[in-house]
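Revision sheet: structure tokens.
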Amino acid sequence: MNARRVMSALLSPALLLAVASVWTAAPLSGNEPVKRGEASTAAADSRSDARNGIIVYYFHGSWRCNTCRTIEAYAKEAVEGKYGEQLRSGRLEWKVVNTDEPENEHFVEDFGLVSSSLVVVERHDDRTIRHTVLQDAWTLVRDKPRFIEYVQRSVGEYLKS
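Predicted:
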């Protein structure tokens, strides 16, 4: 990732707002390291994703605040709540990935990640066709119904195609 893209991402108003809301929303006592393997269900098979289908990733680092954990929980609830049939059929996958683990570091560059992120990915013949980083997750996390609707709508747009 080149320095210009990093600085541009770091200085974006949306990211600054998200960081500010995290700092004010999450008490420091809630920050905990993630044990190797915990909540990283995709670590072992991160490069062997479905040949065809939609994957909803939640990417995080080893240190996670309460807001990061809430985003993961709400997103999982949104996906499983509306798309259980697609998950069971394999057309849709939910994966949690710790990008601090060496085998997962490539995702940071692949999707231009600068923080914990939700990403919807369409794959075809072992290739990523398109992806969307759900940037509004950080601003909607304080409004669970809107957050869930946002995630479900975003995933639904991918499933339509």
